[in-house]
């Protein structure tokens, strides 16, 4: 079952839950995106063009828009102040393309306006990159050595990942809110607004699932340590 601070069947349950949530949320976002990628916006614009209008209208015309390989690989990089849009959303004129492009523009506006939670998330990135690679090593060492100190260190390191997920959720929701707000007032019709809401809600659920899974995992790790102290 387990030795020292090892993993028992409870951890397998968390793994199964995370897999189920991942499959369900990914299926939903793919379904919503595919549905609205077949519906063109009434203005005939591409995702990049609407995102550019959104940026300019909010005083962020210095943000770049560049292509990135892959599907649904779209993101905003605060380090170089560029929106990276997949070809489908850069040049596509569907409701889904516009929704995704404007969501990423929403992140650029967060940076431009000094949105506090985005600043917190950006500052956490290098920390999480480190701790996500080391917490498991610390926990495995705790399991082999039966060390409560190492187990607590592993939990502390993993807690940064949980914090990152919790901060990411409102950041993503706010970017989607900015996107839908702009779409509803920029000359696009009600169909585009409804589609954007569905696509971006589906996307948000992936972050909800990630946050929930990380919380469950943290609670499990803490219970493992508390059981032996």
Describe the structure.
With 229 residues, the chain is mainly alpha-helical. It is 72% helix and 6% strand. A hairpin with a 4-residue loop joins strand 2 and strand 3 (82-86). Helix 4 packs across helix 6 (148-183).
Topology diagram in text:
Layout: H1 9-36, H2 47-57, E1 64-68, E2 75-77, E3 82-86, H3 87-91, H4 95-112, H5 116-145, H6 148-183, H7 190-227
Parallel strand pairs: 1-3
Antiparallel strand pairs: 2-3
Helix pairs in contact: 1-7, 2-4, 4-6, 4-7, 5-6, 6-7
Structural class given helices, strands, pairing?
mainly alpha
Cα radius of gyration in angstroms: 20 Å
Percent strand? 5-15%
Terminal CA distance reads 19 Å
Uncertain spans: none
Shape by Cα distribution: elongated
For the residues shown, what is the average pLDDT?
91
Q: Strand arrangement, largest sheet?
A: 1-3-2
Summarize the biggest pleated sheet.
3 strands, mixed
Considering DSSP H and I runs of 4 or more, what fraction of the residues is helical?
over 70%
